[in-house]
Amino acid sequence: MSMRKKKFTVTVDDHEFVARPGEILLDAAVAAGVELPHDCRIGHCGTCTVEVTNGITVGGETGQCDRVRACQAYVFSNLEIAVEETPKPSQIAGRITEIQEVAEGVVEVTIAPNRRFEFLPGQYCGLQFRGFPKRNFSPTACMSSASFGYNLKFHIKRVRSGQVTPFLGSRIRTGHPVRIEGPFGVAYHRNGRANRLVLAGSGTGFAPIWAIVSAALSESPGREIVLVCGTREYRSFYMAKALEFAAKHKRVSVIPTLEQLPRVSKLLAEGTPAHHLPDLTEDDMVYAAGSPKMVSHVAEMARVAGADFYADPFEASTSSEGSLQRVGRWIEQVKAAATSLLPNVA
Questions:
Q1: Which residues have a Cβ under 8 Å from the Cβ of 85 and sit 6 or more positions away?
Q2: What is the pTM of this model?
Q3: Could you give the domains of the chain?
Q4: pLDDT for res 313
Q5: Is-contact 304 327, C-beta < 8 A?
Q6: Could you tell me which of 237, 248, 247, 246 has the C-alpha nearest to residue 273?
Q7: In the list 36, 61, 198, 329, which could disulfide-bond 339, CB 3.0-4.6 Å?
Q8: 237: buried, middle or exposed (CB in 10 Å: 19+, 13-18, 0-12)?
Q9: Cα–Cα dist 86/93, whole Å
Q10: Which positions carry the signal peptide feature in this UniProt record (predicted)?
Q11: Is the pLDDT assigned to residue 315 strictly greater than 90?
């Protein structure tokens, strides 16, 4: 049989479907009616990440052994893949119950959903305030208690040229209707792990990082955690309450950072979180969220150490076209740092 006519069998859990040589894995699954979790289909959200336990794919590498993005992975043999169980994305309605200024240019928005919104700490969702375009944000835990409740909390930076965030507190206020879509992303807390957690968060990228830390402390208060986070300017440093809570735990090391001098406190380390990570080992679980440059830096450090690394892109949006361009740059940075387009052979 010629290669052109040959088809490969893909096995996921108890399902099988066929794929043509060179066909995109996610496309083959969708065509066969097999549901693989996915969202953007352009390689940046990570929702479609699967583990290739047997077989060969090309493309979609994540920097983690045998894990690929199905929307970017081309099939070149029979495959066996595994999918981590995550909450199924859905859409629900809600309303804003509170908008609180937590630092200059940063607000904490609390939303009451019409029904409980299921997500894994560290995942993100799409928020569409009525009359405004959808934007992605990460639900997080209470900063003073590391607890989650029925209502959802988001840390949001006001972007001057943005189409949504400048209006929080004015045109978008308490009682404003919002549609919540998700959850998405693969940079979430994994239950049942004892590895050291190393987490880097810059700016409002701290939101998913704090969600992961909160979940880890709830599950295993004695787990070793290194939390490195900060902002560019002191006036936007909003996470002090959370860091104070985390530092009360004996095995949690907290390193707050500040990029721009003058520093107003000797407790703040100069630079980005990536500059102050501990020496990584292959046993570490590393998470990063925030500026693309910082995330790429951490990704490279994790790759060199052989550590498991998880990140979802986090970038402000001013327009749909601009957002896609920035996401594209983020993808290229991470690929250059953490992956190479070689066949993935499990």
A1: none
A2: 0.81
A3: 8-82 (3.10.20.30), 90-184 (2.40.30.10), 197-345 (3.40.50.80)
A4: 59
A5: no
A6: 237
A7: 61
A8: buried
A9: 21
A10: none
A11: no
Instruction: Give the tens place of pLDDT for each residue, 248-286.
Output: 999 999 999 999 866 667 778 999 999 999 999 999 999
Residue corresponding to tokens 């920097």: 63
Q: What amino acid is encoded at 267 in this protein?
A: L
pLDDT tops 80 at residue 321 = no
> What spatial distance separates the first Cα and last Cα of the chain, rounded to whole Å?
25
Query: How many other β-carbons are positioned within 10 Å of the β-carbon of residue 77?
Result: 17
Q: Tokens at residue 24, please?
A: 């995109």
Within 8 A by CB and 6+ apart from 152, the residues are 94, 110, 111, 112, 113, 117, 139, 180
Per-residue CA distances from 163 to 91, 156, 321 (Å): 22, 13, 13
CA 307 to mean position of chain CA atoms:
17
Residue at 275: amino acid letter: H
As to burial, measured by CB atoms within 10 angstroms (0-12 exposed, 13-18 middle, 19+ buried), residue 262 is exposed
Nearest Cα neighbor of 180 from 125, 137, 130 is 125
Residue 46, pLDDT score: 75
pLDDT surpasses 80 at 290:
yes
